[in-house]
């Protein structure tokens, strides 16, 4: 979308703390106050979520909830669904004496807590920032009308509440017929609107 010059508005899952997150603070080197520790979100394993760690783009490193740095250590590559994914790995060197160690990383991991950042994280963060703005919320709120109206019309007016055929190729064909009917209806209404706007006053157009 960015390459095409299109501003994309959609929810983006990011690993940077958003407004209201206890880890969001002006100076990442400052530790999070102890009373706020219970508010720090956890991942599925009960450990501190990646969003608890602030990324400093200028220094290319993360900061943990205690204000300790996680500098870049290496790059890894993996193949997922036929595509090569490259990630940068950041590791903390001050985990052993940390008071949050037991909820931060597995004790079996002697190397300390690591954070992985893939090549698209910057893009997701820019999208999240755009979505959090007043303009972003206003634009995204239009989705209910733009996206849901066609589905409501297709279900109510065309009567397509369930597919009659089985198998993905046949269902795709059935859906394309419904979408074509909907789009033709929009096209006819738009032509009628344009003809009405362009017609001289008091002149009635035929056809």
Q: Helices, strands, pairings?
A:
Blueprint: E1 54-56, E2 61-63, E3 69-80, E4 83-91, H1 101-104, E5 114-118, H2 121-132, H3 134-140, H4 143-156, H5 168-198
Antiparallel strand pairs: 1-2, 2-3, 3-4, 4-5
How many beta-strand segments?
Answer: 5
Q: So what's the oligomer here?
A: single chain
**Shape, principal axes of CA atoms:** elongated
Q: What is the residue-mean pLDDT, rounded to a whole number?
A: 89
| Portion in helices | 25-40%
> Number of helical segments?
5
Distance between the termini: 41 Å
Radius of gyration: 26 Å
Question: From N to C, what is the helix and strand string?
Answer: EEEEHEHHHH
- Judged by helices, strands and strand pairing, the structural class is alpha+beta
**Unreliable sequence segments:** none
In terms of DSSP E residues, the strand content is 15-25%
Strand arrangement in the largest pleated sheet? 1-2-3-4-5
**Biggest pleated-sheet summary:** 5 strands, antiparallel
In short:
By secondary structure, the chain is α+β, with helices and mostly antiparallel strands.
Describe the structure.
- The chain is of the alpha+beta class.
- The protein is built from 5 helices and 5 strands.
- Helices cover 33% and strands 15% of the residues.
- The radius of gyration is 26 Å and the shape is elongated.
- The model has no long low-confidence stretch (mean pLDDT 89).
């Amino acid at each position: 979308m960015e390459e095409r010059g299109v501003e994309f508005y959609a929810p983006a899952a990011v690993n940077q703390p958003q407004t209201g997150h206890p880890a969001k603070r002006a100076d990442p080197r400052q530790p999070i106050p102890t009373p706020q520790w219970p508010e720090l979100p956890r991942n599925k394993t009960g450990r501190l979520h990646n969003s608890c760690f602030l990324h400093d783009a200028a220094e290319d490193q993360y900061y943990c909830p205690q204000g300790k740095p996680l500098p870049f250590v290496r790059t890894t590559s993996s193949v997922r669904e036929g595509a090569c994914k490259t990630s940068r790995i950041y590791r903390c060197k001050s985990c052993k004496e940390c008071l949050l160690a037991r909820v931060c990383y597995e004790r079996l991991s002697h190397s300390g807590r690591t954070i992985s950042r893939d090549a698209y994280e910057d893009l997701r963060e820019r999208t999240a920032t755009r979505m959090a703005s007043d303009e972003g919320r206003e634009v995204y709120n239009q989705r209910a009308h733009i996206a849901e109206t066609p589905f409501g019309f297709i279900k109510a007016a065309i009567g397509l509440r369930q597919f009659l055929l089985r198998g993905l190729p046949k269902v795709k064909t059935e859906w394309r017929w419904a979408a074509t009917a909907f789009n033709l209806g929009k096209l006819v209404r738009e032509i009628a609107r344009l003809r009405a706007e362009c017609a001289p006053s008091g002149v009635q157009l035929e056809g």
